[in-house]
Amino acid sequence: MIQGTFLTPNTIDEAVKFFSSSEGSVKLLAGGTDLLVQIRNGFTKPDKIIDIKNIRELQEIIDNGNGSFTVGAAVSGASLAEHNKFGKNWPGVLEALRLIGSEQIQGRASLGGNLCNASPAGDSVPALIASGALAKVHGPNGIRSIPVEKINLGPGKTNLQKGEIVTQFDFPDREPSSSDSYLRMIPRTEMDIAVVGCAVNISMDGDKCIDARIALGAVAPTALLVDQAAKIIIGSKLEDDVLNEAAKACQNACKPIDDKRGTITYRKKVSGVLFKRAIQIAKERALKV
Ligand SMILES: Cc1cc2nc3c(=O)[nH]c(=O)nc-3n(C[C@H](O)[C@H](O)[C@H](O)COP(=O)(O)OP(=O)(O)OC[C@H]3O[C@@H](n4cnc5c(N)ncnc54)[C@H](O)[C@@H]3O)c2cc1C
Fold first, then answer.
1. Which atom of ligand 1 is nearest to 44's Cα?
2. Which of 174, 186, 210, 226 is deepest in the core (most CB within 10 A)?
3. How far is ligand 1, taken at its centre, from the CA of residue 112, in Å?
4. Ligand 1 in contact with 111 (CB < 6 A)?
5. What's the Cα-to-Cα distance from 29 to each of 20, 36, 46, 207, 254, rounded to whole Å?
């Protein structure tokens, strides 16, 4: 099981034990599509690597009924896409994962890795936040469940403590007439990082919106849950003026950087545009469920 500095635990307990007791720089490896690039580029030089792909719970997709799922943190986007029910209940989460890199990357890239890499532009993170998923975290002091939006603190920084591993994501029950969507803006047609990402998760009662969660990516140091925009649309029939007001709330929540890929003004504007497009898609899907 132990091969020099590359550890391959088969259980969560073993992985937590290795992770919490190891000295020096220790990194978890799920798909490795971020970690290996960072090692090659010299951004990180771990003394030890703990491969978490052999742990059963991290590879499981459990259908809990009522649209609720428990998904292992190391499940790849490709595996999740093959599940016969997950994408019907959480199409927005799946489409976010399916935007990551290429077919080859999606065969490895995991939800846990996308979240814990803590890039503000991670595509699945706004979708996870909008879904209301809880991250289950195992560590030397036990297990805790954390709303996904509380995991990341800033670029490359999480609030995970020494020895803690995200093991699973718990997606809540699906109410009738509920669905989600994710859209991102990239300067190229594919294989690029989001300049803005927007995830919408809504529940409808007829033509009235009765619940909503809206999240934005790549417009602040971490993905944002935009409660203000949700408050504006809940109780409405999603009329144009309501959506314009909520789009403004999205723009106001943004604290983007100004760089060659997008100015502050551009990113703010696009966040409102994506919100309005994403909500139409989520609404159409919700009304078909
Ligand atoms: C060519 C290419 C294109 C890409 N395109 C995109 C894109 O379009 N959108 C996008 O969002 N990303 C993109 N990425 C980045 C990457 O593929 C994703 O972030 C991916 O989801 C990372 O998952 P992984 O399993 O490979 O993570 P890994 O590389 O294994 O891990 C990433 C980080 O998270 C930590 N970690 C992993 N799992 C856990 C866990 N369960 N608990 C705690 N910490 C953990 C690791 O220690 C490491 O620090 C791209 C990468 C490449 C190489």
1. 49
2. 226
3. 8
4. no
5. 15, 9, 11, 45, 31
C-alpha 175 – ligand 1 centre gap (Å): 31
Ligand 1 neighbour 28 (Cβ under 6 A):
yes
Residue owning the nearest CA to atom 31 of ligand 1: 113
Looking at residue 3, its pLDDT comes to 43
Phi, psi of 87 (to 5 degrees): -65, -20
Q: Is the pTM of this model over 0.90?
A: yes
Domains present along the chain, CATH in parentheses: 2-51 (3.30.43), 56-171 (3.30.465.10), 178-288 (3.30.390.50)
Smallest CA-to-CA distance from 253 within 278, 223, 213 is with 223
Summarize pLDDT for 97-118 with one digit per residue, the tens.
Answer: 999 999 999 999 999 999 999 9
